[in-house]
From TrEMBL:
Its main location: nucleus. It comes from the Eukaryota. The chain crosses the membrane at residues 296-313. PANTHER family: MATRIN 3/NUCLEAR PROTEIN 220-RELATED. Gene3D superfamilies: 3.30.70.330. One of its GO terms (biological process) is regulation of translation. This is RRM domain-containing protein. Residues 17-95 form the RRM domain. Plays a role in pre-mRNA splicing. Binds to the polypyrimidine tract of introns. May promote the binding of U2 snRNP to pre-mRNA. Keywords: Acetylation, Membrane, mRNA processing, mRNA splicing, Nucleus, Repeat, RNA-binding, Transmembrane, Transmembrane helix. It is found in: Nucleus. One of its GO terms (cellular component) is nucleus. SUPFAM superfamilies: RNA-binding domain, RBD (SSF54928).
Amino acid sequence: MSSSSQPQFRYTQTPSKVLHLRNLPWECIEEELVELCKPFGKIVNTKCNVGANRNQAFVEFADLNQAISMVSYYASSSEPAQVRGKTVYIQYSNRHEIVNNKSPGDVPGNVLLVTIEGVEAGDVSIDVIHLVFSAFGFVHKIATFEKAAGFQALIQFTDAETASSARNALDGRSIPRYLLPEHVGSCHLRISYSAHTDLNIKFQSHRSRDYTNPYLPVNPTAIEGVMQPTIGPDGKKKELESNVLLASIENMQYAVTVDVLNTVFSAFGTVQKVAIFEKNGGTQALIQYPGLSPSMKMLWFPFCFFVFLFFCFC
């Protein structure tokens, strides 16, 4: 029996196959509980880090006699139950099974909820997020937003296994400093699983991206967003690229229509969509191609009106 002034067991409770463990080390993990209890029987469920100090847990055995065996053993042993050198106090729980063992954020899925701490919404571009997480597998979709918890992103992978690999490697880590703007000192990733399985991305924009659908329209309002630099695998800035071009039309000497733009830009590939609009007192147009091609980068040429093009990364 432990010499501690605090009794290690309570004998007044009705035996249960669920045991209540107290005085555990900080952030005790499931594997440590199983290691302590498995000599007495099969563990079918656990619930860790409960209580105000997160130093309590529940362990459920497959059979009542297995739980009784553990309690009886340590009740008669001169050596108390210990985890990481700390004496663990054991008692029967008043519950007969552990329910809702895991919160939704702990149930593995193919979509991760990422909270990026220490940054504002415009500090980390969707390209940087994609670069960091695509190291673990193909990223299908990304959606970023701001909540009370801060700047967050939903990241969809092919399956839960890929998402778990990314979470295990990145949770609690920092985005490499060279991928961040100069004014950002550091940021940390807090990652949990989302209940979503398939994100609904309606537009390609600076806040959301569907990497599986090259034909998804670009949201014109994305032009108002802050243009973030695209970061290459070597950490260097590179030219922003997209399958949608933004053309600023100046010094027009004749009417520029959708048909005119379609004829001009079709010389470089199949034009899917053309939209003309007025902005800041000038005429602009969005021209959408099926995808990127080398010929698109040759789209810098003189007309009787001057067309200045740049890749619109929205």
